[in-house]
Specification:
The protein has helices at residues 6-46, 54-68, 91-108, 120-141, 155-172, 186-192, 195-229, 231-241, 245-257, 259-271, 311-314, 318-335, 348-373, 389-415, 434-452; strands spanning 73-75, 84-86, 148-149, 275-277, 281-283, 287-290, 307-308, 385-386. It is mostly helical and 533 residues long. Strand 4 (275-277) and strand 5 (281-283) form a beta hairpin.
């Protein structure tokens, strides 16, 4: 029946592939949910006095899974009885669903023998639909109770899943750049058609990513140093929050999943805007002002002491300085690469423009991370917790632009400098050969010897009218010895430029016994009879 109706077979195969893509999206969501459920159940079982039943533990796990996607939860079982929002997303926990959605969309487009290949749009739609179908079921299950999900915040998980799936489809296609949509301007179509434009865009992208990475690494380093500096306070808060080993494991896991958040806060602190510890307190390198609503938690022990900042606090500006230098370095790596001619380097305008665009990208990436790393932890004083995204992004843009652009231009000038009338590096065809350098040394030695004897240097002639044999330079000392025609083989003699046989430069490289051509008598050099070559 398959051979008799190929169109029906192709249609059935396409339907099966669409169903498989839908199933892959649902499985990706289920794997992320299962990992959170297993972790919460293990902690609940190991707790000596759990304050809920298994249904409550599953409810908490489902809420935590939605929180990892960016949804906002509402706690109803507060001491004051007022529902408290929880919007602080643990960034390390958010990596799991993003990676699963990305991988599901990427694997759907991998061609397999005997299976039709989906289009990029079809794979994207089916994977996202399958993932969001599971998310809708989970959101319906946690619509009541504590914690409950805020319905208006479910747009963020949809955007996160769609972005991760789109990145997976783009990765499966080989990460192409272009062509742009048909409604895009004609100049954009023309620019993307040029290889040079794509190279510039890749350089800007890598420089911006390197700047963001340095900011995050510097922020994590600031947090680590501060935790070591306040180790006693961190230990006390850790012990007070957990009375038994199960509680300590839970607090430790919570601190681990919040480490990327702390790195973003440290980067915001080094950039200058700092972060908020409630609606009435801000922490910056200049000062720790206001009344902080500081919950007891080990990572928050890294917060500096209240009052004006000291020299140690001001030294945090080394983080954005390092980010600016990194942006400049990654830009100049392509703008003026080593071992390249001056004509191949970018112009001043192109280098400065690439550094500015990289600074814009670094600021945009930092703003996105700052928005994801903060959020409310309650009402009133805890309604604002973490860095302000637009201030942090603007500060990253200003720092990297003010430092990256001039440093990039200086590095470009350094690589293209010409000390003493010569360039810093030379092309391979501009380097003199070894024989030319040796010939120049020989001519200089002959001139010095002739000047010392009062003889005007000039061309010497042999008794037969031909050019006389020239002195041989010693391989050890480089000095010219007396002419000895018997010791100079014919192949090593310098010929005059006016000879009919052409000019062959003298080989002054050391010659060992294994290089001598003595295999045949007619190829050996002249004997010691005194006859010239």
């Amino acid at each position: 029946m398959t051979e008799g109706n190929p169109s029906l077979s192709a249609e059935q195969g396409r339907s099966a592939v669409l169903a498989l893509a839908l199933l892959r999206g649902a499985v990706a969501a289920g794997l992320g949910l299962a990992s959170v459920v297993v972790l919460v159940l293990v902690l609940w079982i190991s707790s000596p006095a759990p304050d809920s039943n298994p249904g409550g533990a599953l409810h908490a796990a489902a809420g935590l899974w939605l929180l990892a996607h960016g949804a906002e939860l509402i706690r109803t079982d507060t001491l004051s009885g007022v529902p408290a929002p929880v919007g602080l997303v643990p960034l390390l926990l958010a990596v799991v669903p993003v990676w699963l959605a990305h991988r599901a969309a990427r694997d759907v487009l991998v061609p397999e023998e005997g299976r039709p290949v989906l289009s990029a749009v079809g794979a994207f739609v089916m994977v996202v639909s399958g993932y969001l179908l599971v998310g809708a079921v989970v959101a319906y299950c946690v619509r009541d109770g504590s914690p409950a999900v805020r319905p208006s915040s479910l747009l963020f998980p949809s955007a996160v899943v769609a972005g991760a799936a789109a990145a997976g489809v783009w990765t499966a296609a080989g990460r192409p750049v272009g062509p742009p949509p048909s409604w895009a301007p004609v100049r954009l179509h023309e620019a993307l058609a040029h290889r040079r434009f794509r190279e510039r865009a890749g350089t800007v992208w890598r420089s911006a990513a390197a700047g963001v990475a340095v900011l995050l690494g510097g922020g994590a380093l600031l947090v680590a140093v501060a935790l070591v500096w306040h180790a006693h306070s961190a230990q006390q808060s850790f012990v007070q929050l957990s009375g038994d080993w199960a509680g300590r494991v839970a607090v430790l896991l919570l601190a681990l999943v919040l480490v990327p958040n702390a790195a973003v806060w440290g980067a915001a602190y080094g950039l200058g805007p700092g972060f908020a510890l409630g609606t009435a307190s801000t922490v910056t390198p200049v000062a720790f002002a206001g009344r902080p609503a500081l919950p007891r938690f080990p990572l928050l022990a890294a917060v500096p002491a209240e009052g004006p900042g000291t020299v140690l606090n001001w030294s945090a500006v080394a983080v954005p300085v390092a980010a600016g230098v990194t942006v400049a370095w990654f830009t100049v790596r392509r703008a003026a690469p080593p071992h390249a001619a001056r004509e191949e380097a970018w112009s001043l305008r192109e280098t400065a423009l690439a550094a500015v665009l990289a600074a814009v990208g670094c600021g945009a990436g930092t703003a996105v991370l700052a928005a994801a790393a903060g959020g409310p932890l309650g009402t009133r004083a805890l309604a604002e917790f973490g860095p302000v995204w637009w201030l942090t992004g603007a500060a990253a843009l200003v720092w990297t632009a003010l430092i990256g652009v001039p440093v990039a231009l200086l590095l470009r000038a350094w690589r293209l400098r010409e000390p003493g009338g010569g360039v810093w590096w030379r092309r391979a065809d501009a380097v003199p050969a070894e024989g030319e350098r040796a010939g120049a040394a020989y001519v200089a030695g002959v001139s010095r010897a002739a000047s010392g004897n009062g003889v005007k240097p000039g061309p010497e002639r042999a008794p037969g009218g031909g050019p006389a044999p020239l002195p041989v330079a010693s391989p050890a000392t480089g000095a010219a010895s007396a002419p000895a025609s018997a010791s100079v083989p014919p192949a090593a003699r310098i010929r005059a430029p006016d000879e009919d046989e052409g000019f062959a430069p003298y080989d002054f490289l050391p010659t060992g016994p294994w290089n001598e051509r003595t295999a045949r008598p007619e190829e050996a050099g002249p004997s010691g009879t005194g006859e010239g070559a």
